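agent: user wants the full assembly modeled, not chains individually. Plan: 1) parse entity lines 2) check alphabet per entity 3) run joint structure prediction 4) return tokens. Steps 1-2 passed, two entities, 814 residues total. Proceeding.
--- entities ---
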Amino acid sequence: MKKTTAHITLLSLLLVALPVLLKAQNPFEVKPVPVISSNSDDIVSVVVKDGIYFCSNRKTNPFVTRKNLDGEKLYDLYYSSFGQGNEPGRPDLYSSELRGKYNVGPACISPDGKTLYFTRNYLPGKSKKIKGESDKYGIFIAHKNGKTWSKIEAFEYNDLKYRLAYPSVSQDGRYLYFSSDMEGTMGKSDIFVSENVNGKWSKPVNLGPSVNSSASEIYPFIHNSGRLYFSSDRQGGKGGLDIYYSAYSDGQWSKPFPMSEPVNSESDDFAFYSASADQSGYFSSDRRKKGDDDIYSFRSTIIRWNSCDQLQPNSYCYEFIEETALKNDSAEMEFKWEWDFDDGNKAEGITAVHCFEGPGSYYIQLNFVNKITGTIEKNQASYTLDITNVEQPFITAPDTISTGELAKFDASQSYLPGWQIANYYWNFDDETTGTGIDIMKKYARKGKFNIQLIISSVPDANGVVREACVCKNIIVIERNK
Amino acid sequence: MRLHQHITILSALIIILSAGDMCGQAVPGVDENIPYLMTFGKGGNETSWGDDDFSQTFFFTIPKEFKEPFFIRIYDPDVSGNTDEMNGYWDTRMLYSVFGGKGCYTFDKTSQGEDPVANYKSGVMLASRVFAVDAKYDEKWFTFGPFNPADGEYYKKWSAFIFKIVCDGIAGDDGNLYRYFLSKKADSNVPIEGANAFTHEYCFRMWNNNDTAYVSHIYPFIDSGCIYLKQKNFDWDNDGNFIVVSNVRKGQRQDISSEDNWIEGRFSIQPEEIGKSLDFRFYKRSDYLVRNNNVVISVENQYGEKLPFWSAPIGGVPVYKPKVKVIKIPPKK
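--- prediction returned ---
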């Protein structure tokens, strides 16, 4: 063998043996939704089963331009039904009864579909403007009456001095999140929450410095999972407004984490909405043309199974029971029960617990030691114990790591007899993925992450590819500084 | 009464079914590993030597199908020589009596011969002989018979004829060590197929050895309806260990008596032990040698009925049967 060949061979072996360092990749595919975007501003509001609500200041009549007191074009609420391929169809103005000489802006609908929370100006377009004040807006609540919305009432904490906007109601209808510059605001605008107690909304509470900053926090969206998405122009973002999310656990909101590119960009990215656990959704951005907000859809490029089996730890521990002795009184027996576990270990007792090191076939023998004579009656009973791993992909990884800590994620203990494995796919639940039997990876933020390992086989003679998925939770804690 | 009838039927079935495998004519039996039977002369009235009553009764069962003459042979029947145990000088006489006929076993409770009282010599005496010092019989066989099997007491529940042999130490104080054999032949030991032997109180000599490998056994049979047993043993001199073994009992310790004392022990019977023999196992102590240790043992059920110790265990020698169960322990979550 030539020296160079030998070196190449050795290098190849090393490459195969060493874990792969995770490479970043785009976790989302983003594309504009031209059918509901216009040359005016279009902002996502809420997505329901059959369509999408959004607000837009587009012209509906070429001869009429609706403006507010500041001369800005008025927003209205539009609805677009999903058509073929679940793509939004041509939009229509929604519920003209809500319309007036107001901005009718971002809205949300209660889970039962009977209540609409929406943003609207306090004063109609022709009202006298308060000197030195820009036009302000609040949250209004409409109730469904057949096919129309009626009984519009103001959110009781609306105040002409403040802006209250972008309502988002929780899945159980109990919490209403919104953005405001009301008293207690830390920055230009903060996110507040109000709780519905016995049909009455509580005094709004600022979510505090873990979520809000000295900049603006707007467009909150509370996801079914409890994750709160919002937009902020705080420092450290990609530029303009960026979309962040925070999770509530142990009585506090986690440090907001920005959505990955290409959802966030150097332009304004805001009004995030996702119904299906970040797998797909919509948001608004002026990335195409500064100042012209369009609606974009996104789809996760990350494979994530909805139904992935929880990783079952392998157990090599067994209890051995000599039932005849256990059943009958053995307290005064002149014998000792001695178990030989065929792995170099022995134990005494009518019952014994032993943990083997790993899978294998073990010939367990029960010996009796005569306490009177000291003689051993060997192999008076035996049991062939075949230990196998649980038939599943297997994740070997630490349960807890620190942020920034390089950790190994290993699939080599997977036990899938009869499979010719073609691919190991990792979803680390932080919008990163990887492939390979083992991977070295760091987590950038703390939290609880549900890792999925998906193994696929090479196609069999009939072209059938088998796939199996397991998941494991990992806790990432803040590294001590 | 009904319960006893059931017990009787079960016993008969088991004994008949088991008879084909038996070779119970040697007393002590082959599986018992007991060196000698033991009877002392009653002249000294000294029980501390290991015989509580100076008399021992054994029964032989002969299947009804066996029609030929048979013999009862005695090894070393006299009291002298190397085998027997001298106290002072040889002065002991032994009376051996063979009984058959109606009532030799069933006349009443005393006819079972636990103690030499009342009707322990019930039935028809078929033969009798007294032995004293007689070198001619040292380590030699003496033969009673021939006997006609039909001269025994027919015992319907076992489908067998029963004969009784009683050894009484009628004079002197020496110890008589001896054995029996139920034989087809007068001059040699030829077993009768299906025959067996039993006693309700066993007096025997332990091995003169302090090696725990010398293990003696006796085999009581457990009838249906038995709930618990009470064993009594006498003059064990704390010589070693006594354990009970069965198919479901690996070796349960029993108390043993000290010098010239009785001790009792009670233990419950498991359902799996019904219709089978127990193995009473006697280990010699190993730390020092107890020489010439003679012991007595009997066992009775909850009704106070003495159980027979069979020379050839009914159903065979019991063997403990361990049963292994393995349970996987789920991993901790």
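agent: reporting back. Helices of chain A lie at 3-17, 323-327. The radius of gyration of chain A is 31 Å.
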